[in-house]
Amino acid sequence: MVGTGTGVGKTHVSVALVAALAARGNKVCGLKPIESGVDGTSTTDAEHLALVSSVQPEPAPYRFAEPLSPHLAARRCGRAISLEVAGAWVDRQPAPLAIVESAGALLSPLGPGLTNADLVRALSPDAVVLVGLDRLGILHEVACCTLALRALAPGLPPAVIVLNPPAAPDASTGTNAGELAALGIASGAVVMPRAAPTAPASLAAAQVALARLAMS
Ligand SMILES: C[C@@H]1NC(=O)N[C@@H]1CCCCCC(=O)O
């Protein structure tokens, strides 16, 4: 699970996907191997994911207090993020299915010369979900991210696009999924309803996304 930006609602979509898989009796966990802004004052993304997981993950290897880019949050506490460590942790979680959420946007840095696109390449997932907001600018953002994924994590199937409702809808809201397809930027996008991630309408949208991911 990657984002066209930060704060676009990756956790919202991840929670819906994990809950939809768990509701169908799957052993599944939602994982966030790298997270910043973990300061003990609010529920973390990893905790939101654990709440809907049918298999509980071990504590993630990289949890940083400062709400900064992961590379900087890590550096400020004298650590460096290793893709091998993150990948090994993901691999040893005891569920046959996992939704793995990245921290920040697709090209947010994890270290010098290292971004979430490298994490995607290292994890070599069966499918990639790209989350963005259904607002003006998303056509460009999806086009950029698609190009970047193709270049930096080649060999993966095209990302399934999921659009979250923006806080403030604009004139493009509601048109973007259709335009992504019509322009050939992405073969179609799943649009999430304005509802809690475990609400029936969100789970229904998650089922559509899972079908496109061939995880149904
Ligand atoms: C603070 C938030 N915590 C988290 O796990 N993801 C966010 C990190 C966003 C990083 C964006 C860096 C950038 O691209 O500028």
TrEMBL record:
Keywords tagged on the record: Biotin biosynthesis
Alphabetical list of SUPFAM superfamilies matching this protein: P-loop containing nucleoside triphosphate hydrolases
Protein name in the entry: Dethiobiotin synthase
Domain of life: Bacteria
Annotated signal peptide: none
InterPro entries with a match to the protein in the record: DTB_synth_BioD (IPR004472), P-loop_NTPase (IPR027417)
